[in-house]
Amino acid sequence: MNYRKNLEIKTGIKNLASFRKKAAEYSRKAKSSRHFTEEQKDIYYNTGKGRLKLRIKNGKDGVLIYYKRSSASGKRVSNYFLSETSSPKELDSMMREMHGVKVIVEKKREIFLADNVRIHLDSVRGLGKYLEFEIIFNSIKNARRTLDGLIEHFNLDESAFIKGSYSDLLIKKGQ
Q1: What distance in Å separates the CA atoms of residue 127 and residue 109, rounded to the nearest whole number?
Q2: How far is CA 74 from CA 99, 130, 166, in A?
Q3: Model's pTM, two decimal places?
Q4: How many separate domains does the chain show?
Q5: How deeply is 74 buried, as exposed, middle or buried, from its count of CB atoms within 10 A (0-12, 13-18, 19+)?
Q6: pLDDT of 90-110, one tens digit each?
Q7: Considering only CA atoms, which of 171, 54, 51, 55 is closest in space to residue 109?
Q8: Helix, coil or strand: residue 174
Q9: What are the pLDDT digits (tens) for 34-82?
Q10: Smaller CB count within 10 Å for the chain: N or C?
């Protein structure tokens, strides 16, 4: 499998407006940028290793995502594989039959794309509000430098970074 890689962090936030302003400031400096919002439903399936989820975007298009990453620290590398689908409901039926559902995460995600950086402002049902960075990379050294710049720009406390995924948080919460 030909994996893609990103370096990522996630942290809880209180005030979406102040982080939205900082994300807009950051993305204005990029050579290439976009800003949009999606309603996302992530259906996690039981699997022996890694994580497997179907993301349904705005109730119509979907992407099957398989990924592996360590939850050892707040800054982590994720190796992932994507497969787009225009039939997410049919794919979900098949995946439920084959694997069973582990947990479902529903969120409204505001996305700022700035070159190879994805800044997410998430409102997650049952959990709250979060900021997430994903830096797609070929060079981990450059990705770490970019992440350090983002942490400084957003004035983040690294000790507050979350090690797991939203699915882990929901399972821990008992949902």
Answers
A1: 13
A2: 29, 14, 13
A3: 0.94
A4: 1
A5: middle
A6: 999 999 999 999 999 999 999
A7: 55
A8: coil
A9: 999 999 999 999 998 999 999 999 999 999 999 998 776 789 999 999 9
A10: N
Closest CA to 38 of 104, 108, 112, 105: 108
CATH number of the domain within which 88 lies? 2.40.320.10
- Do residues 153 and 170 touch, judged by C-beta distance below 8 A? no
Number of residues that make up the chain: 175
> Residue 71, Cα to own-chain centre: how many angstroms?
14
Q: What is the residue range of 168's domain?
A: 4-173
CB of 160 closer than 8 Å to CB of 12: yes
Query: Is the CB of residue 59 less than 8 Å from the CB of residue 43?
Result: no
Pairing assessment for the beta strands 101-114 and 117-124 based on DSSP bridges: antiparallel
Tell me the two tokens of residue 34.
Answer: 């976009």
- The reported pLDDT for the residue numbered 1 is 60
